[in-house]
Design goal:
Spore Coat Polysaccharide Biosynthesis Protein SpsA, Chain A, two-stranded antiparallel ribbon, alpha/beta, 15 helices, 2 domains
Length: about 375
């Protein structure tokens, strides 16, 4: 599979033409930072995204690489408008979905995101997907200064405001208090919720020669910190400098909410396979942490009360040999408290115990 996927990635990448050609002012400089923007059906968001990047107050040379993946809602036209207006900053690629989507083993593999990385020329790569935006005009300046101060960092990120598509749900702040650096264990156990994608800045070597398991992953952004810990340390700036839009129509978060138990489980099994591939890729340095993360994922879905209890119990028998003893105990405790439910207090007690168990897992 490796040769096939990577060959197709490279072959179709060579077919990508840059909008307005390769002799714009931005093509004539050597940027220090490349900001990648992957966008599809983001007409209601893309202006705010691009305005936040273009408003950066810095002497740092940076380019904006937009991968527009064949939108039909006006996103493409807006990107073209911005590319014409700011040829000294923007490099726009208008994808043909016949090229950017590849079918492998009955699954669609999307090339748009890795192609934006492959087009990047900067020493550092920042991410801001088309439905997110930056709110601090000094974000790049601060983040680059942080990574320059600590050259051992392969990746840094910062706080963000999480804004929900459901207007009845108030926004919340994502941040870590009194933290500066994170261990490999914390990165792995943090999983997809470890960082807001729009806050990431990482060294170019993190995404050079991307492995096939990254290319075929359904969600590449949760794997970037895994690649980063193999190249250096991960650092954090405790400032809220971006907005992450959650639950946007067509987004990964919104699609996951619509999935039934079997689909959610299949997704977790796919992540287990990807983590196993990463484990081999990294020389088996993180075996215990990766196995623990898989175990936590299985624990959480098996104690998710929105799914049928009997179905969860049947699947538990298939998964229990891949789970840590404490996580199996939590599943069994959940079923016990669920059956002894008194006005909802049983499951409330379980959630308290689960949080305590997670804290112990992270800090032991």
């Amino acid at each position: 599979m490796r040769a096939s996927i990577l060959d197709e990635l490279e072959k179709n990448f060579l077919l990508q033409d840059e909008y307005l050609g390769n002799d714009k002012p931005i093509n004539r400089i050597a940027p220090l930072v490349s900001v990648t923007v992957v966008t599809y059906q983001h007409a209601n968001y893309i202006r705010e995204c691009l305005d936040g990047i273009l408003s950066q107050q810095t002497d740092i040379s940076y380019e904006i690489i937009i991968g527009e993946d064949g939108s039909t809602d006006g996103t493409r036209e807006i990107c073209m408008e911005y590319a014409k207006k700011d040829p000294d900053k923007i490099r726009l690629f208008l994808r043909n979905r016949n090229h950017s989507h590849y079918i492998s083993e009955n699954k669609s593999v999307m090339f748009n995101s890795p192609w934006t990385f492959m087009s990047a020329r900067g020493k550092y790569i920042a991410i801001c997907e088309g439905d997110d935006y930056w709110i601090d005009p000094c974000k790049l300046e601060k983040q680059l200064a942080f990574m320059t101060q600590y050259p051992n960092l392969s990746m840094s990120f910062h706080g963000a405001r999480i804004k929900f598509a459901d207007s009845n749900k108030p926004s919340k702040i994502f941040r870590y208090y009194d933290r500066r650096f994170f261990s490999a264990k914390e990165v792995i156990l943090g999983g997809g919720a470890f960082y807001p994608t729009c806050s990431a800045l990482f060294r170019r070597d993190v995404i050079e020669n991307l492995p096939d398991w990254y290319i075929t992953s359904p969600v590449g952004d949760i794997l970037l910190p895994l690649l980063a810990i193999g190249k250096g340390d991960v650092g954090y700036i405790d400032e809220v400098m971006a907005v992450y839009n959650s639950g946007v129509s067509g987004s990964w978060t919104q699609r996951m909410r619509k999935k039934d138990f079997r689909q959610r489980l299949d997704y977790l099994l796919t992540l287990e396979t990807i983590r196993n591939a990463f484990n081999q890729y990294s020389g088996f340095r993180y075996t215990a942490f990766l196995r623990k993360k898989n175990s936590l994922n299985f624990r959480d879905i098996l104690t998710e009360t929105s799914f049928d209890k009997q179905q969860r119990k049947r699947i538990y028998e298939d998964l229990k040999d891949r789970m840590f003893p404490e996580d199996k105990l939590m599943v069994q405790l959940h079923y016990l408290l669920d059956s002894l439910l008194f006005l909802g207090y049983g499951l409330k007690l379980f959630r308290v115990i689960r949080r305590a168990s997670d804290f112990v897992s992270m800090h032991r």
